[in-house]
Design goal:
Elements lengths: L11 E6 L6 E7 L7 E6 L19 H7 L2 E7 L26 H18 L5 E6 L2 H11 L7 E4 L16 E5 H9 L12 H13 L11 E5 L1 H10 L14 E6 L7 H10 L6 E6 L12 H13 L2
Parallel strand pairs: 3-4, 3-5, 5-6, 6-9, 9-10
Antiparallel strand pairs: 1-2, 2-4, 7-8
Helix pairs in contact: 2-3
Length: about 325
């Protein structure tokens, strides 16, 4: 029996042991629909899980659909505290100020390693690449640096880089994020006077799926998703000069893909990160016009899908 409602008839679900004692992690997979080239494990960003990112269909098509038709088995991991199906953090049932930020990079990297090793152990994932968005780029980079023999290639989409900004106040364990908060995030990168890159109808459907990811979301006023603050703290620390991993340890080929309007990964950020990835076997950069930090849900998403598949397929 499936663990969760299937988003596709061919979807595969797995519950695997977590590094967190007594807890389990949820993996959502879609097999390749053409002769297989390899496997991809998607690492989500700091506010929403696999169902509303790599697997979310807009007009009947998702990023993982594009990857599956390029010959990849596609898996998405939900970290603890994200989505309905990985076990939540017990601390999320307690006051947010009672604990430090949950699900920071080091903790998430151990969860990602558990998922990668489980896929490799099952067979068929001997060529396992990571695609990571935003905060997830730190988690993926940490794993690729610690376990170079585990990861074939690395795609960093809108990655976080080190900046030299000011120290920010420490965050609580978790916080509530509304659909309105997400709308502001999704539209913030579009310059004034430019046509929207996210149609409101697309967002409305996405927002319902986003709220579905937390069973308690609609019991709150306004409806909101309880979200671990470790990712937000990691980003704040990176922008205060303390990146959570060492990019110089990464040995796998790396592609940095970003939107031209992405305020979280601008020209200076990408230049710093590409320079810091000095040990990578190869480095690529692709900049997509008229796209922001949430490009995988924007009108330019096809360019992101094509650039990703091309990098994973080359050589």
């Amino acid at each position: 029996m499936p663990i969760a409602s299937k988003l596709d008839p061919n979807e595969i679900h797995r519950l695997i042991p977590s590094p967190e004692p007594g807890r389990r992690l949820f993996l959502r997979g879609l097999p390749a629909t053409v002769p297989r080239r390899g496997s991809v494990l998607y690492v989500h960003g700091g506010t929403f899980p696999s169902a509303t990112s790599v697997a979310h269909r807009i007009e009947g098509w998702s990023w993982r659909d594009a990857l599956a038709t390029a010959g990849f088995d596609v898996w998405g991991l939900d970290f603890h505290g994200f989505g309905r199906f990985s076990d939540p953090w017990p601390e999320q049932a307690e006051p947010a100020l009672a604990h430090p930020p949950l699900c920071g990079c080091a903790v998430a990297s151990a969860q990602l390693e558990a998922a990668a090793r489980a896929l490799r152990a099952e067979g068929g994932a001997e060529n396992l690449s990571l695609i990571a968005h935003s905060w997830g780029s730190m988690v993926a980079g940490d794993l690729a640096g610690r376990c170079p023999d585990l990861i074939d290639r690395l795609v960093l989409f809108g990655p976080i880089a080190r900046r030299d900004g000011r120290e920010q106040p420490r965050l609580p364990a978790w916080r509530l994020v509304t659909a309105e908060d997400q709308w502001r995030r999704f539209t913030a990168d579009t310059p004034a006077g430019e046509a929207p890159v996210l149609p409101e109808a697309w967002f409305a459907a996405w927002a319902e799926a986003y709220l579905d990811g937390d069973p308690a979301s609609r019991t709150r006023t306004p409806p909101a998703v309880a979200t671990p603050c470790g990712p937000f703290q990691d980003i704040a620390d990176a922008w205060a000069g303390r990146l959570a991993y060492d990019p110089g340890r990464v040995r796998a080929p790396v592609a940095v893909i970003r939107g031209a309007w992405d305020s979280m990964c601008g020209d200076a950020d990408a230049a710093w990160l590409l320079g810091a990835l000095s040990g990578a076997a190869r480095r690529r950069e692709a900049v997509v016009p008229r796209a922001g930090h949430l490009m995988h849900l924007e009108t330019a998403r096809g360019e992101l899908f094509r650039a990703t598949a091309a990098f994973l397929s080359e050589g």
